[in-house]
Q: What sequence folds into this?
């Protein structure tokens, strides 16, 4: 998702708060997947893996939310793409 965004808009995903939450989400998801892939022998490992996957999912949701808030507060991320689309549309009308 981050790779397809314009660098100015995608900067919000690396903001201090959103970036930290999204890094935690990646770490929790990898840990949960690794625990699930190792095996389901001890029940405690299954519970810990499931909790890590659940926490990773929640962190992803909140990280995207925090990135949206940071993006909305950044004038370059909100006004810049709008102006670019407007100029592109005006250029199409003239040509």
A:
């Amino acid at each position: 998702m981050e790779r397809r965004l314009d660098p100015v808009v995608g900067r919000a995903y690396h903001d201090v708060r959103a970036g930290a939450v999204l890094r935690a989400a990646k770490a929790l998801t990898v840990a949960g997947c690794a625990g699930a892939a190792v095996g389901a022998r001890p029940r405690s490992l299954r519970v810990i893996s499931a909790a890590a996957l659940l926490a990773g999912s929640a962190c992803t949701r909140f990280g995207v939310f925090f990135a949206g808030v940071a993006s909305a507060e950044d004038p370059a991320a909100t006004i810049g793409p709008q102006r670019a689309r407007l100029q592109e549309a005006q250029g199409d009308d003239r040509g």
Residues 80 and 86 are 10 Å apart (CA to CA). The chain is about 80% helix and 0% strand. The two ends are 33 Å apart (CA to CA). The mean pLDDT is 84.
